[in-house]
Amino acid sequence: MDDLCLICGDPLQAADVVVVTRGLQTLVEASLTRNDGLAAKMEGASSVRLHTICRKKYTRPSSIKAHASMQDNDTPSEAMHEEQAPHLRSSTSEFDLKKRLYLLWYRGQHA
Ligand SMILES: [Zn+2]
Predict the structure, then answer these.
(1) What's this model's pTM, rounded to 2 decimal places?
(2) Which residues are CB-contacts of 2 (< 8 A; sequence separation ≥ 6)?
(3) In terms of CB atoms within 10 Å, which end of the chain has fewer, N or C?
(4) Domain layout of the chain by residue ranges
């Protein structure tokens, strides 16, 4: 295997390689926050291979913050929290309606 780690550029060894597919977006976002150009290398890729340790270091919010002091309040976990909270609040009545309909259906099935 002569693949190179996208993050540190060293050769990958089978023992400590992680294939990132579903987490690709996280890496892209980390790269955009760092503005290091890695996002461009990952563009269009369906998976990337990295050292396990490099990926951990790269996507750790505190590590990203150290590289991007301009955007120190924009960690991935906070962004996710902000997306979810208003959605839950605004859809409460819709959820209650669905729950009621489900209960009606449930009683119908078990009457
Ligand atoms: Zn590496």
Answers:
(1) 0.55
(2) 11
(3) C
(4) 1-73
Give 67 Cα–ligand 1 centroid separation in angstroms. 17
Nearest Cα to 31, choosing from 45, 17, 15?
45
71 CA to centre of ligand 1 in angstroms: 25
3-state SS of 30-64 is HHHHHCCCHHHHHCCCCCEEEEHHHHHHHHCHHHH
Residue linked to tokens 């009457």: 111
What residues pack around ion ligand 1 (CB closer than 5 A)?
5, 7-8, 51, 54
Q: What is the pLDDT of residues 8-33, one digit of tens each?
A: 999 998 889 999 999 999 999 999 99
Measured in Å, residue 13 CA sits from the centre of ligand 1 at 10
